[in-house]
Design goal:
Pfam families: Lyase_1. With 216 residues, the protein is mainly α. The chain is built from ten helices and two strands; from the N terminus they run H-H-H-H-H-H-H-E-E-H-H-H. The chain folds into two domains: 110 residues, Fumarase C, Chain B, domain 1 (Orthogonal Bundle); 86 residues. The longest helix is centred in the middle third of the chain and has 37 residues.
Length: 216
């Protein structure tokens, strides 16, 4: 598979990002997550009583990452809709499961939830690295706490300080960053499963039972 679909590409990405963060924002991660969400939806609908077989679900699972991006691009030219383009391509790979892909759902089910998953995974990549940086900088600050250096104020030399004290100022910023990112991760909430156009009408038509729609 071409790396064009495996990495998020930008000057910032190619120069500064880790391979794991590049993959996290890649097309392959995005659209394979769409497929995983369709599998989760089918499994939940099966559990709640819709006529979905395990064979159909297994077929979907066999093709999570072998995405034909060229075919999806051609489909999107015809449908003018990114989600339906990928539904059609996935359906051609999974003919048995074709009728149950994206069954009853709105586009935001895959689009918005995937964005939230990517954000969550990105924060979980970043926070341990930030913690490691804080730990190393704390060691550096303690090691050089008695080494004098010239302080600055208003862009000009001022009274003496220490290298360790200066490093502690950097640490304070990083600790505030860590707290903000941790709070963002803790507060992250995912969308429920909504029907077409954001209502539950399509799921009511499928299940005929409001309690099952709520459970979904």
């Amino acid at each position: 598979m071409s790396n064009d679909y495996s990495n998020y590409r930008s000057p910032l990405s190619t120069r500064y990002s880790s391979k794991e963060m590049q993959y996290n924002f890649s097309d392959l991660k995005k659209f394979s997550t769409w497929r995983k969400l369709w599998i989760y939806l089918a499994e939940a609908e099966k559990e709640l009583g819709l006529n979905i077989t395990q064979e159909q679900i297994d077929e979907l699972k066999e093709h999570v990452k072998d995405i034909d991006f060229e075919a999806a691009a051609e489909e999107e030219k015809l449908t003018r809709h990114d989600v339906m383009a990928h539904v059609h391509v996935y359906a051609k790979q999974c003919p048995l499961a074709a009728p149950i892909i994206h069954l009853g759902a709105t586009s935001c089910y895959v689009g918005d939830n995937t964005d939230l998953i990517v954000l969550k995974d990105g924060l979980e990549i970043l926070l341990p690295k930030l913690g490691s940086c804080i730990g190393r900088l704390a060691t550096f600050a303690d090691k050089f706490k008695d080494v004098a250096t010239l302080g600055f104020t208003h862009l000009q030399p001022a009274q003496l300080t220490t290298v360790g004290k200066r490093a502690c100022l950097w640490l304070q910023d990083l600790l505030m960053d860590e707290r903000a990112l941790s709070r963002a991760l803790d507060d992250l909430r995912f969308r429920g499963v909504k029907g077409t156009t954001g209502t539950q009408a399509s799921f009511m038509a499928l299940f005929g039972d409001g309690e099952k729609v709520k459970a979904l």
